[in-house]
Amino acid sequence: MRQELIFAPMGALVVLTFVVLTLVPVRRFRAAFAGKVRAQDFKYGESARVPGDVSIPNRNYMNLLELPLLFYVLCLAQYVTAQVGMVTLVLAWVYVALRALHSLIHLTRNNVMHRLVVFAASNVVLGTMWVLFLVAVFVRPLFAA
């Protein structure tokens, strides 16, 4: 399998991250023009005065910079060690789809239970990817000799 295919789901997650990032100033400026917030409300992050619909894109953006970091590291490790296979690629796309669904839920209806289920599922997928990678790199070679 072409190893560089792993960069496609990575790129998709990067695009999602930048899309969410653009929502942060859009929501903040809208709120400022409507008189709901002032610049001082963001001096040390976000004050308690910042409405939820304004702070949620920023929180979602931070989510996309937290655990997905382990996804990016894993994808690069898979590429470098030539461990990208069909299962890896499918799981990577499932992870990205779940993260996109999590963002969609978070940025729209924000149903906490739905968001939690999708978030947990994405973490299970990422954990599975890591286990499969570590087995392929460290355990499989023990039985190949």
Structural class: mainly alpha
What is the CA-atom radius of gyration, in angstroms?
19 Å
Q: Into which percentage range does the β-strand content fall?
A: under 5%
| Percent of residues in helices | over 70%
Order of helices and strands: HHHHH
Number of helices: 5
Mean pLDDT: 96
Shape: elongated
pLDDT under 50 segments (min length 5)? Answer: none
Q: What's the number of extended β-strand segments?
A: 0
Termini separation comes to 23 Å
What can be said about the biggest beta sheet? none
Please give a quick description of this structure.
This protein has helices at 7-33, 52-63, 68-80, 86-107, 112-144. It is an all-alpha fold and 145 residues long.
Word description of this protein:
The chain is an all-alpha fold and 145 residues long. It is built from five helices and no strands. The chain is elongated, with a radius of gyration of 19 Å. The mean pLDDT is 96.
Topology:
Layout: H1 7-33, H2 52-63, H3 68-80, H4 86-107, H5 112-144
Helix pairs in contact: 1-2, 1-4, 3-5, 4-5
Tags for this entry?
single chain; 145 residues; 74% helix
